[in-house]
Amino acid sequence: MTGKRANDVQYGGDHYQVPIQPWDYIIANGIGYAEGTAIKYLSRWKRKGGLQDLYKARHFLDKLIEVEEEKEKQHAVPDPDAFKLPEEILDADTHRSIRWK
C-alpha cells in the first residue's frame, strides 16, 4: 500500500465518492457477501453501471432469497397431520375394511 488509507484511494473511477463508503457500511453492520454485493451495486448504479448495476443487485438478492428459502425448507416444522395413519384401511387379502382408533 502507498501509506494512504484504503478509503483515500479508488482505482478505476470515482463512482464511490460518497459520504459513507459501501464497504464501511457493510463491515460495520456485519453484512454478508450477497447482501453486501447488492448494497455495493445499489450504491453506485446512478454513477457507474446504470440499469445493469440494478440487474446485478437483483441477481445477488435472488441468490440470497434462494439460499434462505432452502434453509427454511430444511428447518420447517413437519405438518403433524402428514404422519397420521388413516382411520380405515383395506385388507389386501380379504378386501375388507379394517378400522382402528
Distance N to C terminus: 76 Å
Q: Approximately how much helix is present in the residues? A: 40-55%
Radius of gyration: 27 Å
How many discrete domains? 1
Instruction: Give the uncertain stretches in residue-range form.
Output: none
Structural class: mainly alpha
User: What composes the largest sheet?
Assistant: 2 strands, antiparallel
Count the DSSP helices: 3
- Mean pLDDT across the residues is 85
Features:
single chain, 101 residues, mainly alpha, two-stranded antiparallel ribbon, 2 strands, 43% helix, rod-shaped
Describe this structure in words.
- This protein has helices spanning 22-28, 33-44, 51-74, and strands at 88-90, 97-99.
- It has 101 residues and is mostly helical.
- It has one domain (13-99).
- A two-stranded antiparallel sheet has the order 1-2.
- Strand 1 (88-90) and strand 2 (97-99) form a beta hairpin.
- Helix 2 runs antiparallel to helix 3.
- The termini are far apart.
- The mean pLDDT is 85.
